[in-house]
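Run C2 domain-containing protein through structure prediction, thanks.
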Amino acid sequence: MKKYSFNINGSKCFANQIALMKKWRSKRQQWTECLQSELGDLYEHFQRNSKLAESSKRLKSQIWSSVVTILLVKAKGLPLAEDGNKLNDAHIKFRLGNEKYKSKSSWTERWLEQFDLHLFEDDQQLEISLWNRNTVYGKATIDLSIFERENTHGIWKPFEDCPGEVFLMLTISGTTALETISDLKAFKEDPRELKVMRDRYRWHRCLQNLRDVGHLTVKVFGAQGLAAADIGGKSDPFCVLELGNARLQTQTEYKTLTPTWNKIFTFNVKDITQVLEITVYDEDRDHRVEFLGKLVIPLLRIKNGVKRWYTLKDKNLCSRAKGMSPQILLEMNVVWNEIRAVCRVLQPKEEKLIQQEAKFKRQLFLRNVNRLKEIIMYILDAARYIQSCFEWESPLRSLIAFTLWIVACIYGNLETIPLVILMIILKNWLIRLITGQSDSTSSYDYEYDEDDDDDKEKEEKKSIKERLQAIQEVSQTVQNTIGYLASLGESTKNTFNFSVPELTWLAVVLLIGAIVVLHYIPIRFLLLFWGIMKFSRRILRPNTIPNNELLDFLSRVPDDEEINQFRELPPTAVTETQRANPKKKVKAS
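Sure, done. The structure for C2 domain-containing protein is below.
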């Protein structure tokens, strides 16, 4: 009985051991699965972190350091096409890193196109290729790392695979890195450099380099009150400075309406009469920009060392730009040589290569017509003033004018002409000094700015019929003026080509008489006689009509339209067959 129980107890222990082994195996399997899961998560974590590292490394390499502004001007000496003719579809392709630009086609070898490319630290090779349709003719490479930043360079770059070269104006600016030559925080003004700069433009060194007129320094601190160009109510503004064909720009400040650029720029002044153009843009994707405000400052109006806010204007530079009274904070300093500047003013003005052609606009057309009308009215007022002296409307004024005329005719010489012009300038200067006006157009600009919104509202309220009527009236005035000038020119031409032989021979007789009179009688006595006749006409012959003898003579000579109207037609109409075969008509006759 005991043996039996022992066997039973032994079998129970064996069953317990088997259950423990099964339980241990299941736990070991669970631990293994858990460990594999943890290892898998850890592997995925490391793999994900490596991808993040690679993407951050790739993103870091995609952050550009500067903006390369390229102005494609022209080319010369380009090769001929395969058929031996000139390239009629020539265009230039540019590549900097992953960015590309293709110019327009031109057969004149002149493009005048400006564009921007982003410069990366790891790739500073600008690739240029010449194409004609789908065929590449030549390539060239420019290493941008050798060029000075924040300066405009003119480059003639020859092609490697073909004859010819292309002219570019290249500027590297908009540097995002700190402690650059344009960073205002890292800039420290050196008194020695400032002294050397001023000594370079002293009057006694005026003949050393006539092209180097002066030096301009512009500090751009920031702006405020800009308009919101993005959907979120912010903008990505950057500032562009242009002096002639030199162009520099700041970095872009993202998501702000009060950017702080803190940049300092320098320009070589080639003409002291140039104008500094400062424009603020909003940066968008795909190199697109949106206008935020503009400011133009003549170099002669710059006050050195004055830090102040300047109001930004709209594209037409007539009224305030959009936003909350947008302003830009600047400080400028210009040093120049007066004698070099005078020599440069008497030479041809530098052509600005990039200029936007104004499209036809009704308001611009009306404004230009009014400007021309004001000049014509000014000349007519001066002529009426002189005529009033001849008419003795004011006896005292006519007596003074008559006395001055006699004195000028008796004692005057050729230097009298610039003296009269100098007296006119002196008169305007005295008026300006007495009235205290610093600018003759300041009052006009103020009135224009105040009434600009009212004019826009009135313009919107006008109907299409009223607008067309206004255009018709101005167009009619321009048409009649152009017609009168053309008629006057054609009458002068017809005086010389015997369109009216009698009047031409009369002109010949008058010219011969003028030659004899001018040969024997001095010009001063002739002018004295003419003045006496003009001033005494109103007294001796009060009922005569004032006239101009030359215009009276030309009014008798017909113009081309009148000659065409005077032409007689044949008594019988000419058929189409007779016009096509005039020989048959001659034979029949």
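The CA atoms of residues 47 and 572 lie 102 Å apart.
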